[in-house]
Design the sequence.
């Protein structure tokens, strides 16, 4: 009996050694973007559709970088630039006006691999603040540049400053005049949850690196020089390969006081809680207890994502390696919309 058994085992071993290796699993990557927290119930349906279309275009730009093996930083910047250029959000060309009637914009970007970060604040003549924030990270020893200093640096890097008329937006100008009139009459201005449009992105690339970025025009009728959480590393923007990447949207003062973005990632890293629990505890419990409105998008190093918000809505889009884009969040009851990323 020994010989036949031995022969059978030999044949099985030989077959296994010569069998084709199992196909390698496709590298995991993911991206989530947001178009701001607020109340979309009063927004016309055509504007919501325009925002969805812009967000689809934005996340496709990031997806096409990630699927080629590109860096999460590149994907984050590319997606945000699309939304800044659209004029549909409170960032770039669609930024809200200050009390002086001139948009002032803030942006930040962070590399989860190196913890490198760059941000700009109170810039008035920069078409793509997210790009300038990245240059601050890569071309200076600093993290944050503001106002005229940031714009002088931009010129030194070959960025052409644009006229304030570049940012003229009839929709936002009408919003500004309405708020101005309300302030003159000392009546209540826009409710906070009626403001929405800060944009942000988080991404995980095929090399396992996280990145986050955020760009905003702040709040309607803000005081000139007011800076929110978006360009503050750890408050509105944060990324660390050891934990997660976060971009926030909402009333920035609350996010700064609670260092929301970093707090979520530190809970994941040190308390070993899930990303869902960390983000939910901060956004839906701590901020709610303080009447702080807003939400976050977050992505961890395993590709898990979460998008909690305590406002009536927060527009988000998510894509993974299969190219399916899921758009949701314009209100809490609407069914998600799925589309395939353009190849």
Sequence:
């Amino acid at each position: 009996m020994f010989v036949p058994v031995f022969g059978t085992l030999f044949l099985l071993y030989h077959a296994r050694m010569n069998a084709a290796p199992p196909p390698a699993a496709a590298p995991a990557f993911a991206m989530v973007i947001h178009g701001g927290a607020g109340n979309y119930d009063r927004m016309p349906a055509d504007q919501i559709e325009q925002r969805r279309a812009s967000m689809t275009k934005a996340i496709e730009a990031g997806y096409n970088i990630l699927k080629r093996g590109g860096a999460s930083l590149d994907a984050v910047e590319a997606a945000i630039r699309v939304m800044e250029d659209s004029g549909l959000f409170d960032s770039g060309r669609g930024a809200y006006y200050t009390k002086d009637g001139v948009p002032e914009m803030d942006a930040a970007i962070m590399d989860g691999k190196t913890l490198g970060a760059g941000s700009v604040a109170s810039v008035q003549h920069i078409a793509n603040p997210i790009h300038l924030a990245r240059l601050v990270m890569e071309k200076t020893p600093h993290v944050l540049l503001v106002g005229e200093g940031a714009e002088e640096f931009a010129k030194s890097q070959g960025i052409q400053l644009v006229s304030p008329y570049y940012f003229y937006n009839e929709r936002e100008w009408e919003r500004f005049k309405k708020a101005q009139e309300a302030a003159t009459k000392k009546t209540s201005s826009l409710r906070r949850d009626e403001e929405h449009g800060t944009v942000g992105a988080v991404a995980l690339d095929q090399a396992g690196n996280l990145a986050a970025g955020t760009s905003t025009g702040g709040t309607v009728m803000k005081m000139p020089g007011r800076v929110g959480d978006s360009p503050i590393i750890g408050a509105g923007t944060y990324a660390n390969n050891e934990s997660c990447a976060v971009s926030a949207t909402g009333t920035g003062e609350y996010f700064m006081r609670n260092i929301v973005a970093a707090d979520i990632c530190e809970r994941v890293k040190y308390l070993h809680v899930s990303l869902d629990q960390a983000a939910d505890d901060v956004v839906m419990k701590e901020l709610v207890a303080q009447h702080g409105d807003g939400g976050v998008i977050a992505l961890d190093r395993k590709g898990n994502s979460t998008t909690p918000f305590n406002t009536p809505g927060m527009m988000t889009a998510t894509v993974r390696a299969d190219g399916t884009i899921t758009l949701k969040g314009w209100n809490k009851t609407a069914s998600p919309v799925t589309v395939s990323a353009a190849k």
About this structure: The longest strand covers residues 30-38.
